[in-house]
Amino acid sequence: MTPMIDVIFLLLIFFVCTASFRPPEEILPTRFSLPGTIAGDVPVDPEIEDLDEIVVKVLWRDGRAQWQINDRDYNTLAEVRAVLAAVKAVKDDLPVILDVEPAVPMENVIDLYDLCRQVGLERIQFAASVGR
Q1: CA–CA separation, 120 vs 97, rounded Å?
Q2: Most C-beta atoms within 10 A of its C-beta, which of 1, 27, 67, 120?
Q3: Is 69 helix (H, G, I), strand (E, B) or coil?
Q4: Is 116 exposed, middle or buried, given 0-12, 13-18 or 19+ CB atoms closer than 10 A?
């Protein structure tokens, strides 16, 4: 009888350690509202909702920097800041990939990196091209 109890306890420990527990239902995102709550639907831009990553290209044209965020052109760093802040408000865990042309001065790269950190984006990566 004692060996059987030992085996049962070992099996119990095995199943407890390998079980994947489900998170509580209150944490999971849902479209249902509980009684007594107020529905607060915030409209989300469909282009921002499906983003997997943000690619910021820094281009050097006519002696000044220009920026592209996911293939849209921006002329000032203030416009870039507004777009990144809006994206951060929707999804704060998106990675930001900085793709910088070789002709761009380092101060512009540092300004963009600092801007991303000020907005609150933490997953900042630099794109590297093969063959240059």
Answers
A1: 15
A2: 67
A3: strand
A4: buried
The residue assigned the tokens 């761009």 is 104
Domain made up of 46-126: CATH architecture: 2-Layer Sandwich (3.30)
User: At CA 38, angle to CA 34 and CA 42, rounded to 5?
Assistant: 110
For residues 121 and 112, give the distance between their C-alpha atoms in angstroms, rounded to a whole number. 12
**How far does Cα 60 stand from its chain's mean position?**
27
Q: CA-to-CA distance for 30 and 62, rounded, in angstroms?
A: 50
Determine the 3-state secondary structure of 73 from DSSP.
strand
Query: Phi-psi category of 48—alpha, beta or left, where left has phi over 0 and alpha has psi -120 to 50?
Result: alpha
Residue ranges with strand state E in the chain: 54-61, 64-69, 72-74, 96-100, 124-126
Domain spans, the chain? 46-126
Position 126, amino acid: F
pTM: 0.57
